[in-house]
Write a structure and sequence with these properties.
The chain contains 6 helices and 16 strands. It has 222 residues and is an alpha/beta fold. Strands 3-6-9-12-14-15-16 form a 7-stranded mixed sheet. It has a 5-stranded parallel sheet with strand order 1-4-7-10-13. The protein has a 4-stranded parallel sheet with strand order 2-5-8-11, with no helix packed on it.
């Protein structure tokens, strides 16, 4: 446990440019504090002291603003940057050297039992406010964009963005726009905007025609 806490401190020093020393990280980083308390709560959880584990996790949430279920399995070197509003569910599994920014949710999609939360591989980065929902896997070295809602697995070395999330990089390669947009060849939002623009153009043309008729009528009457 203490070895993992040392790795968590080192992760903040290496990956956060605002970190000036290990002492500063130890004293001032709520993400690290949340992980220290979680390591204790997880030890109690795995030794069947479930009520004590849940109580510590709730105190952890109250102090840091980060909610981590004591059953979550978290590897070495996790950096929770800022962290306020971050939620990590019971059956979540997180690999080594991952980074979560504030407001991230690693949650479930319903009331099913068993494995119901995500599994993150090694070196995964999850952007601000992103949600990864369900028992899906996020591959090693992948990036989840800020605000994304991920409902399907993401391969290794890939990037997913949007609501719902779509792959823009897959296995280290940039995907063409036609693939990103789907079989229709256009994003639904882009299609909607195109229809609105077409309608505006049609109305403007009708206004021009009406103004021309009014001008001709006025000239003929004069």
């Amino acid at each position: 446990m203490f070895d993992r806490i040392r790795a968590d401190i080192q992760a903040a020093v290496e990956r956060d440019p605002a970190a000036r020393s290990r002492l500063e990280v130890l004293m001032c980083y709520p993400g690290l504090h949340a992980m220290i308390w979680h390591r204790v709560a997880h030890w109690l959880w795995t030794h069947h002291l479930r009520l004590s584990a849940r109580f510590i996790s709730q105190v952890n949430r109250l102090i840091t603003g980060i909610e981590i279920h004591p059953g979550a399995q978290i590897g070495r070197g996790l950096l929770i940057d800022h962290g306020m509003g971050t939620v990590i569910g019971e059956t979540t599994e997180i690999g080594d050297n991952c980074t979560l920014y504030q407001g991230v949710t690693l949650g479930g999609t319903g009331k099913q039992t068993g494995k119901r939360h995500p599994t993150l591989g090694d070196n995964v980065v999850v952007g601000v406010g992103a949600s990864i929902l369900g028992a899906i896997a996020i591959g090693d070295n992948s990036l989840i964009g800020a605000g994304a809602v991920v409902l399907h697995p993401v391969p290794a070395d890939s990037t997913a963005v949007g609501v719902p999330a779509k792959l823009v990089w897959e296995e280290g390669k940039r995907l063409p726009a036609s693939v990103i947009s789907g079989a229709t060849g256009a994003d639904p939002c882009e299609q909607c905007l195109a229809l609105i623009n077409a309608r505006f153009s049609e109305m403007e043309q009708k206004i021009v025609e009406l103004e021309g008729r009014l001008a001709r009528t006025a000239a003929a009457g004069g």
